[in-house]
Amino acid sequence: MIYLLKNLKKKLSGVVNMPKRRQLRAFDIKQIEGFEGLLGVDEAGRGALAGPVVAGAILVSKAFLEGKWAATQGGKVNDSKQLTSEERESLWLEFEKLMNQGLIHAHYGIASVGEVESLNILGATKLAMRRALEGIYSPELFTKRVEPDLFSSIEERSTFKPSVSCKILVDGLALRHFPYPHTGVVKGDARSLCIAMASIVAKVTRDRFMIALDKKYPGYGFAQHKGYGTEEHRLALLKLGRCVEHRDLFLRKLFSDHVDPAQMNFSILAED
Predict the structure, then answer these.
(1) Residue 247 lies in a domain
(2) Which residue range(s) make up the domain with 199?
(3) pTM listed for this prediction
């Protein structure tokens, strides 16, 4: 009875909380005000011991956020880690349909293990995000699309300031020395619809890549743990040693004792 009275009081006062997943859409509708579009960016694989880091990017319009799909189906979208693989794959198919209808633009970017080693994980993550953004084709998005590549001079890279007509939301804290103007949203994949959609693109893309690696490098269990530091993965490393898809910088933190010349010290990083 007390619960019913409290609930009635909330309804009468007009402050009944929306279901969490509906809040993702409401958050984006507020964020897009004054912009032509809203672009969510997220990554997958940053804490893994093996495989690339992958970023996803999703561009949506106000019409999409206020449209039928976002209103009726958007509630199925959530932080990719909170969804089952079947739910993520189902939403991927939904995103493909939306792209074919021109309702959203989506892409992903990949930074290889070699780039993780040479740029460190943060640099590789930013590179994957840049590639995901550059893969979005929308004439209204970029007024200057040609950005310096990794072989450009330091001056070219440091002075490059692309002009964008949409608002870019990146999961987590804002990125330093990132060429695209953006807003960091802490726990964004649980707060923003377009970031959550981007997290699904990144996660599904990376999972598929790791399943393919499982066939190329059997015995490590890549198809099951997707390269993260599970007990199964650590035991496989002790037995088989590393393969070319393992990140040496991460492996040095995983083991406190040298188990063989190809393996150095490492500490487990939780899945992002």
Answers:
(1) no
(2) 19-217
(3) 0.79
